[in-house]
């Protein structure tokens, strides 16, 4: 069964902490994405990557960075977490660059106190 | 970025009823997609539409790509409890991943 796995389902962090959200896919997809989901706002694209060591900014990259050292792994980094980054974070992968037929992970719900 | 207006925002229906939801935009899209998110899970693709006027079914679900390319509709017939969740439309206008825009979602709640 094909899968996108996010390492943490629930995290609670304090303001100013560095946060790593890890995502691994087993479908050999070149394209990976990080979205943020908030009630009433839908899904918003944070960063995406078309290849190893490659990254592109999405619609809301401020306060985030990413790392893609291996094809199957795409990490989202919050250098200094803030309360307005409390949210559900969804990782996805896709055969297509534009991400149309996305395979999503189960999500990581982050609370920043 | 482009805006998608998805409606209704939420629906409270009885089991067995039919459901209709839609997405509209002032912009033209090349592709429309419909995803469903079960509680506590990530979204899963239900239907993809690639041509204006296209009507596609997936079991009890039917979706249409509007002829103007500015809207799409999703219908669910004879709803069952496992249809509960959030339904998202997404439109693709071209370019890279930033050309994909998601609607804000329709939250479907089924009352026993």
Can you characterise this structure?
The complex is a heterodimer of chains A (113) and B (112). Chain A is mainly β. Chain A has strands at residues 4-6, 10-13, 19-21, 23-25, 31-38, 42-49, 56-57, 65-70, 73-78, 87-94, 103-104, 108-112. Chain A starts with a strand and ends with a strand. With 112 residues, chain B is mainly beta. Helices cover 0% and strands 54% of the residues of chain B. Chain B contains no helices and eleven strands. In chain B, strands 2, 4, 5, 9, 10 and 11 form a six-stranded mixed β-sheet that branches. Chain B has a five-stranded antiparallel β-sheet with strand order 1-3-8-7-6, with no helix packed on it. Chain B starts with a strand and ends with a strand. At the A-B interface, strand 6 and strand 11 of A face strand 4, strand 5 and strand 9 of B.
List keywords for this structure.
heterodimer, A: 113 residues, mainly beta, three-stranded antiparallel β-sheet, 12 strands, 0% helix, 51% strand, globular, B: 112 residues, six-stranded mixed β-sheet
The helix tally of chain B amounts to: 0
Q: Tell me how many strands of chain B there are.
A: 11
Structural class of chain B: mainly beta
Radius of gyration of chain A: 13 Å
> What characteristic shape of chain B results from the CA principal axes?
globular
Order of helices and strands of chain A: EEEEEEEEEEEE
């Amino acid at each position: 069964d094909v899968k996108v796995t996010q390492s943490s389902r629930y995290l609670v962090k304090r303001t100013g902490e560095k946060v790593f959200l890890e995502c691994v896919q087993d479908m050999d997809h070149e394209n990976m994405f990080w979205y943020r989901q908030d009630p009433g706002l839908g899904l918003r694209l944070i960063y995406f990557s078309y290849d190893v060591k490659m990254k592109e900014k999405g619609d809301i990259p401020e306060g985030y960075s990413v790392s893609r050292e291996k094809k199957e792994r795409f990490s989202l980094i919050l250098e200094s977490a803030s309360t307005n980054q409390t949210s559900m974070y969804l990782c996805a992968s896709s055969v297509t660059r534009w991400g149309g037929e996305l395979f999503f992970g189960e999500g990581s719900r982050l609370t920043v106190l | 970025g482009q805006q998608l207006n998805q409606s209704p925002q939420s629906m409270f229906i009885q089991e067995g009823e039919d459901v209709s939801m839609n997405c509209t935009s002032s912009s033209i899209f090349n592709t429309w997609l419909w995803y469903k998110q079960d509680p506590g899970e990530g979204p899963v693709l239900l239907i993809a539409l690639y041509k204006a006027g296209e009507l596609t079914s997936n079991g009890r679900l039917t979706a249409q790509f509007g002829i103007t390319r500015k809207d799409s509709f999703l219908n669910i017939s004879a709803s069952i409890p496992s249809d509960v969740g959030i339904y998202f439309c997404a439109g693709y206008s071209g370019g890279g991943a930033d050309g994909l825009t998601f609607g804000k979602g329709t939250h479907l709640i089924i009352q026993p």
